[in-house]
Design a protein that fits this description.
20 strands; 6-stranded antiparallel sheet; single chain
């Protein structure tokens, strides 16, 4: 029997596909000359993780996450990164019987065995690992090694750098000659930026102190030290970063902002660069903007089925203002972009005004704020209203003028989406009133407010189940102990106990009762009580549900409680 057919039958047995789909998929595999597992992934029948787990069981091979393995660095030294990436294979370890263990992305065939024999001629064992995780591992190893080599060369070179202007192509991406690329400071800056990608960092902090310079990455909301080097090399690093981001090299007394566009592993990234003069030199913060991150669905962002029902009602309005609230870095922009992707249709005119434009949406007219040219949020909004818009997205309501124009646009037949910095949903109503917007206008214009926070996900590998103690029971407000999960720490999560983050929401839908309460000028507590009676779930309760499900823990719940 054909191996493709056998694999498809096993997928049906594992309930990844239905029995009646086997024949159709098998015929398609023959017609397209594709392996069954490749076809399943391409057509979206399964994810790489679920497919590989089933394949491992089918071929009687162990399966695990790459982060759970600890490859022997002495073995890695004998294999090029190019070879490992091309053939999706990583040598992991060799036991006392000289059996070499390899991590591979698919069950090895004769061609793969031939490749393995180029590395090792003895007995071999194989562990199945998702292909994307092998790529991330290789990228991280290559970047760490590149950073170390560049730093060593820079220190030996006395901190010299090439400060010639760089050339940029029509996509604003850097094009440089070999002499510039091989300069130690250039390679170090490039390595620091590239190393942050496989670690899922959101920001890179480069901070000068009296004798050293520290490089820290913000990963899952926390800063982690990744490198440290002598202050003597810092002028070269500063010059390189400023040249790359289009910032004036001569100016060191005032903060500056710039931007870098790079293609890393065939993926487009934007980097927002900000400088800040300190007593020991200029501090750099580099915000990493992965353009793929703005393509999430609501489910991937953490919206539950019940929350999606309320969001659907809010976004169904043809006019009014929808507000997202929360602190900086809580994912408001990502959520706004996901809403815009849903609302963007050929029959509507969508215009945004942002500072800066973080992600370009096909079919959406996006305006970049330019304060030097007096193009503020308020001025841009006034012009947008003369462009016959149906939907307007305002990156942030920062002042009274912007708030007033946005509210006026909402009550004159436009759907407006924007953000505010408030702690909860009802706080957005009070904030608009504080911006001197009349109570009756706020009640008439606002159709919904979504407060959002990001909490850390417990590492799925090392999280530990246990009974709630007295302190946890008191925090949760329960009298009987329940089963909870707690963070531990392992290699897979970098010994943090957490892997990734998920959003929790508090969604306020403006009902008639709430509109009357706002018009009457009732305090925030009364408005909140009405909203909760109407079904609004507080941020605290949303996060508590995740604690009970084992997605996060009580310590993350306390970050919301303490606010």
């Amino acid at each position: 029997m054909d191996i493709n057919y056998e694999i498809l039958q096993f997928y049906a047995y594992k309930k990844i596909i239905k029995r009646k789909q086997v024949k159709y998929i098998y015929d398609d595999c023959i017609r397209l000359d594709m392996a069954a597992e490749d076809y399943m992934l391409a057509k979206g029948y399964c994810t790489q993780v679920t497919a590989l787990a089933a394949l491992g069981e089918f071929f009687c091979m162990p399966y695990c996450e790459m982060g759970m393995l600890e490859p022997d660095k002495s073995l890695l030294g004998g294999v090029s990164y190019v070879f490992m990436r091309k053939h999706k294979i990583v040598p992991v370890s060799k036991d006392k019987n000289d059996v070499m263990v390899f991590a591979v992305a698919r069950p090895p065939d004769m061609s793969a065995m031939s490749m393995v024999s180029r590395i090792y001629c003895g007995p071999c064992d194989f562990i199945l690992v998702p292909s994307v995780q092998i790529d991330i591992f290789i990228d991280s190893m290559a970047a760490v090694q590149s950073t170390a080599n560049a730093l060593q060369d820079l220190q030996q070179n006395g901190g010299k750098t090439d400060t010639k202007p760089v050339q940029k192509n029509e996509l604003n991406q850097v094009e440089e000659n070999d002499d510039v690329i091989n300069n130690p400071s250039v390679r170090l800056v490039d390595s620091i930026i590239r190393e942050a990608i496989p670690f899922r960092a959101s920001d890179i902090h480069i901070e000068p102190f009296e004798k050293t310079v520290k490089v820290r990455y913000r990963i899952d909301g926390d800063l982690q030290l990744r490198a440290e080097f002598s202050i003597e090399s810092y002028p070269a690093i500063c010059a390189r970063l400023k040249i790359l981001s289009g910032i004036s090299i001569a100016e060191r007394r005032v903060p500056q902002d710039g931007r870098i566009s790079m293609v890393i592993n065939d993926t487009d990234y934007d980097f927002r660069v900000s400088t800040l003069p300190t007593v020991y030199g200029e501090k750099f913060d580099i915000r990493i903007l992965d353009k793929r991150a703005f393509g999430f669905t609501r489910e991937e962002l953490g919206f539950t089925e019940e929350e999606n029902v309320v969001v659907d009602r809010i976004l169904a309005h043809s006019c009014g203002i929808v507000l997202l609230t929360g602190p900086t870095g809580c994912g408001k922009s990502t959520t706004l972009y996901s809403f815009l992707r849903e609302l963007n249709r050929p029959e509507v005119n969508v215009i945004t005004v942002e500072d800066p434009v973080e992600y370009t949406l096909h079919g959406v007219n996006q305006v970049q704020v330019n304060t030097k040219a007096n193009l503020t949020f308020a001025e841009a909004l006034r012009s947008i209203l003369r462009q016959d818009p149906d939907i307007i997205m305002v990156g942030e309501i920062r002042d009274e003028d912007t708030a007033e124009i946005a509210i006026r646009a909402a009550i004159t037949g436009h759907l407006v989406l924007s953000t505010l910095h408030t702690n909860d949903a009802t706080g957005a109503i009070i904030r608009l009133v504080d911006m001197k917007i009349s109570d009756y206008l706020v009640a008439d214009a606002v159709v919904g407010v979504i407060a959002q926070r990001l909490v850390k996900r417990l590492c799925p590998v090392c999280k530990k189940r246990g009974r709630a103690n007295e302190a946890e029971m008191k925090i949760l407000g329960i009298s009987e102990p329940v089963t909870l999960f707690r963070s531990q720490g392992c290699r897979y999560c970098g010994n943090t106990g957490y892997k990734g983050r998920i959003a929790v929401h508090e969604i306020l839908h403006m009902t008639d009762d709430i509109k009357r309460a706002v018009s009457d000028g009732l305090p925030a507590e009364k408005i909140r009580l009405l909203a909760e009676e109407g079904g609004m779930v507080r941020l605290w309760d949303s996060c508590k549900n995740l604690v009970y499900k084992g997605i996060t823990d009580v310590s993350e719940l306390m970050t919301i409680y303490n606010e």
